[in-house]
Amino acid sequence: MEELNPPDRLLLGAGPSNVHPRVARAMASPMVGHLDPYFIEVMDETKNLLSKAFKTRSKFSIPVSGTGTAAMEASICNLVEEGDEVIVGVNGFFAERMAEMIRRWGGKTIEIKKRWGDIVTKEEIEDAFKTSDANLVALVQAETSTGALQPLEDIAKITRAYDALLLVDAVTSFTGVELEIDEWGVDICYSSPQKCLNCPPGASPVTVNDRAMNRVRNRKTPIRSLYFDFTLIERYWNERRMYHHTAPIVNIYGLREALRLALEEGLEARIAKHRRNSEALVAGVEAAGLSMNTEKEFTLPSLNAIRVPEGVDDAKVRQILLDLFNMEVGAGLGELKKQVWRVGLMGMNSSERNVLFVLEALEVALRLEGHPLKKGAAVHAAIDYYNLQ
Ligand SMILES: Cc1ncc(COP(=O)(O)O)c(C=O)c1O
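Predict the joint structure of the above. Result:
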């Protein structure tokens, strides 16, 4: 068996995105013990960077050891008790996963079911409160399966008015899309590093405010999961440093560097960059006669879902992109299987170069598949959008 030699792909799919060279370098640094004074400093720095990136004063901004699904499960199992009613917007694969997880942890879901690609409105949330005793609302801000961006600000206000908590999945939006944890009043939010942070998966950001931590501390029943118990994890991440589990040290090195990169670029500039490149991509897609899966207003800048035209084999097109251009584009998931291509423009992968490249590559692949587009139309529309000529 030989040494690993994976292909050097351009990862423009639903995630992971490419790893930033500075993150890769940080992850190749020497290992220290997980209670080494050096690592304790790294832990404190990572918490501070997370609070800044989440725009929160919450002291409980930590990476959960595990992938985004672990962060989802941790959030849910701490907050949901047997018989609790939870309002969930169900409009995509990850929203369905959230609902399923809430039920598995004993919650009763009040589901607002929408077409995959649509968003949940504040009126629908208010109606759900009027007809239930819900104490939690769970929403996916960036639904990776559909490319829809869920507005949160007004829903957060309504949730507060009903004295409930708001739980948000920001796996595909964190540092790529506007997210104001304290200003909007999001109580618990989790993400994953392999999307807009250009970091390998394994240590997943979570922030929990005091209102939510008070709920966790005053549960009627103990948290069933020992591994995800926030009160135990807190004692490991605060001054007490009580052993709970061995943190994935190298992943935290990587996350720390990825957060430094995001804050160096500036959150506002980074968010504007994601929006601009997504708009250029959409201009190209539409000029070529293709269409997006979402309404313009709710198109998610970090994950752009393009409808597969009638009669085109989506898998063959993706295979051409992989073989000819070494480029990964995501397949449709769940209800949208075979119906969309998912183009991730995340973190450093959100760039003019990648927008022009993926538009050109799609045009070539579709021509080879017998579905010619108007020659050069997509790239030229993006160039016009960027005002490059
Ligand atoms: C919106 C959303 N939530 C949760 C997850 C789960 O994250 P992971 O695959 O890292 O477990 C994903 C993964 O793509 C996601 O896109």
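The two ends are 51 Å apart (CA to CA).
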